């Protein structure tokens, strides 16, 4: 989302980031918004948080820097490479995701939304293969379900596992408060009670839920894309068990289970906010200089969620009910001291939205596809007021 990372102070600039969703569905569609962001640059360094990898990236100087892994943006031939901060939301795991001692209840934990790109049928088949081999493992699959439904996953699960096996393999579907039906402390409890984490997505890079596992010092099993959060030297056992194809999934899971105790914290240092917020400051100062940026502390609360959610797009807890134009106007007009106070709060963007309340906008389309409904919300008011304030 549009995320206030650093408040300005005097002639030294703050830092704000926007998401690729906001860029594509809002900002670049409205010249007045582009102009409004240009006007912010006297007071802020403006970044773009990439919510997905982009192998045909085209640089746009509207954004001063880009937050993405160094392997996740590939510029088109003949186009400039972006100024890069090689971190994103997954690098800022909350501090209560800590290694837990004691007996683990579940052998395997998987957390994924009920959407096609997570590779969920392949995960079901891996567990089926383990059970057929005689490995009666306890499995917990925490699965937020979008408004469009679970795409038949519950029926598939029940067809693959008999009632006695379903006593061991809990498929916990949650069709409410999508995409974050659980508070983060509860989610951390599930991680702490599990031995290893698996992820079956075939091409999703830098998964936030895998970062939570590494913060808990849990081994992770998945395709190479899942390990892309870590430095290359750590993309191996005992931190990461990479599979080349899904036939290797069961054996990799068994190998990770054997090494689940005493993994060590080298991977944790790359995803835990206490360490990575220092790295973020260093990365920004490398790009822009210490004399350019405000000396105030960077807002470090909830960055794992705040950086990736959207103003006026998406739904549920992944959405801020405020027009992005109004948010930009607040950044431009509020005094330094007030902005500094906001960055010390738990959720600065929600506080800003509450300070300028607007009624929720009704979606004008009865679209079958939820993603179409999301795009139908790409409408906002107040741009004329922004332009007049330039």
Topology:
Blueprint: E1 3-6, E2 14-19, H1 20-25, H2 31-40, E3 44-49, E4 54-57, E5 65-67, E6 73-75, E7 84-85, E8 106-111, H3 120-132, E9 139-144, H4 153-160, H5 163-166, E10 169-174, H6 184-192, E11 194-198, H7 208-215, E12 220-222, E13 240-242, H8 249-258, H9 273-288, H10 303-306, E14 310-311, E15 319-320, H11 324-333, H12 336-343, H13 348-355, H14 370-376, H15 383-388
Parallel strand pairs: 2-3, 3-5, 4-6, 5-7, 8-9, 8-11, 9-10, 11-12, 12-13, 14-15
Antiparallel strand pairs: 1-2
Biggest β-sheet: count, sense, barrel? 6 strands, parallel
Unreliable stretches (pLDDT < 50, length at least 5) are: 359-390
Looking at the structure, what is the overall shape?
elongated
Q: Strand fraction band?
A: 15-25%
Mean pLDDT: 89
Could you list some keywords that capture this structure?
single chain; 5-stranded mixed β-sheet; elongated; disordered C terminus
Could you characterize what this model shows?
This protein is of the alpha/beta class and 390 residues long. Helices cover 33% and strands 16% of the residues. The protein has 15 helices and 15 strands. Strands 10-9-8-11-12-13 form a six-stranded parallel sheet, sandwiched between helices. A five-stranded mixed sheet has the order 1-2-3-5-7. Strands 4-6 form a two-stranded parallel ribbon. Strand 8, helix 3 (120-132) and strand 9 form a beta-alpha-beta unit. 43% of the residues are buried.
